[in-house]
Write the structure tokens for this entry.
Amino acid sequence: MLYKNPYCKKVKGSFLLIVSCGHCKTDIAKYQKVGRGNLLRMYIDRIIEGAVDFSKHKGALLCPNCNEQLATRTTLKRKKKEVYIMIRGAFNTRKV
């Protein structure tokens, strides 16, 4: 993996997900998910490892293999955090 988050901490009640491209099945990121439900937003500070450098990458999240768009990067107004809003059907997740 190209990107490794140096500030990542273990969050109570979380589990690891591997996020991959829905088109070519390339692994994109290892993510620490908190709570139940589907992956709707991917917080930048919870990404553990990634195939794309998330610290420098602005705008849309593209697959490094097939260049399909998986998410768009925005800032949440309330929490003031950087997130990727995931596009449904463009990615797959599996529990580690």
Observations:
- The chain has one domain: 3-95.
- The mean pLDDT is 90.
- The beta strands are 3-4, 14-21, 27-34, 41-43, 47-50, 60-62, 69-75, 82-86, 91-95.
- The chain has no helices and nine strands.
